[in-house]
Amino acid sequence: MPEPLRKPSEASPFEAVVWVPPGFDAGIELAGLSLLLRAVLCLQEAGAQRVWLSGDGAVAPPNDPRIRVPVARGEPADGAALWLRADTTCHRALPARLAAVAGRRAEGALLRAGDADGLWWAPAGRHAALRDALAAQQPAPHEASEPLRREEFLLPVRDARERALAYRAHLKSLIKPTSGLMEKLYMRPLSQHLTRLFVPTPVTPNQMSVVTLGFALWAAYLVSLPEQGAVVAGGLMHIWMRVVDCIDGELARLRYQASRFGQWLDSVGDGVGMAAFIAGVTVHVSRQAPELVPIGVTGVLAWCVVQAMQYTTALGGGGDGNFQHIEWGHRSKTPTALERAAGHLELLFRIDVISTVYGLLVAFGLSVELLWLHLSIAAPAALYFIAQAVKLRRARVG
């Protein structure tokens, strides 16, 4: 089974507690997972080494292959712990951030997330006070509060209305800060409606990645045909493919099904799909302007070089298939002038923007212009990422 993705917390090793209130219904689901399972997986992803189930609610530990830490009834004997109410849900990154904030505090205070009782960091010796307050349905004690960031949320899910609001908050959180312009403008808003349809089904994120690749290759085939109607359909299909491409990651984050294999499958599919699309456009253009074939072929090769540099750099660093996690120079704290310029251009030339522009150019009969545009983007990008790959490799060896 693929290893799950987890960003380690800055806090020292800790355990976690899911507090289960009286009358809690363990069968209620939110976004495809039971509330209890969602709480356990959220704390596991935050870096908890063990999860305890505490409180008066009579529930058994959930049994799910995604759980890779011990889960049992009880409470930590000592040491710090994250506490999360089972009838509360939060942004998936919030528990890890709270643990990291607590790890940087020297005083070891009982720290609450936001202004509502739902998520706490409890240092050693404070578990009993927190448990007793929750059992008595009184405001939980705390010495400090960590304000929520704009994208974060901590919401109750005690009735159908609250769960509907929380579901919408989870869907909205799928629009990542690193999302490109077109992702935010129309891709994610459209894909979230599709994702809601797939959440209650057995369809997996990796299966959706394969479907996306199928759409990409279908679009490439259509734009290679001589009929203009097929080319228009292929251009629009290429844009629609990018909407579908959002679903695999959204399902993975909603259901805690992310894996390194899934990241690689998604990234490789993106690279193959774009290379196939440019190759298809080259075939179409070659019928009327064979002299432009070298332009198209060079553009495809340059794109393959960009992808190869990203793949080898990610593998060399032992990372996953998410190229956003690579410490490229344009994301470093001290970029050179060239790297700073590349950073400014990054959002403009993200795959979501490129796919939208390329699809529209083909649909409007501007296939020749597309080949020249692609070469002007891919060739400098290939040279830049070759230099970046060499720089990062030298840094690792040194």
> Please, how many domains?
2
| Content-based structural category | alpha/beta
Tally of contiguous helical segments: 12
As a percent range, the share of helical residues equals 40-55%
The CATH class of the largest domain: Mainly Alpha
Tell me about the largest β-sheet: 7 strands, mixed
- Which CATH architecture of the largest domain would you pick? Up-down Bundle
User: What is the count of β-strands?
Assistant: 11
Ranges where pLDDT stays below 50 over 5 or more residues in a row are: 1-8
The CATH homologous superfamily of the largest domain is termed: CDP-alcohol phosphotransferase transmembrane (TM) domain
What fraction of residues sit in β-strands?
5-15%
Give the N-to-C terminal Cα separation.
34 Å
Our Rg estimate from Cα atoms comes to: 24 Å
- Return the average pLDDT rounded to an integer: 90
* CATH topology name of the largest domain: Four Helix Bundle (Hemerythrin (Met), subunit A)
Major beta sheet, strand line-up: 5-4-1-6-9-8-10
Order of helices and strands: EEEHEEEEHEEHEEHHHHHHHHH
Gross morphology: elongated
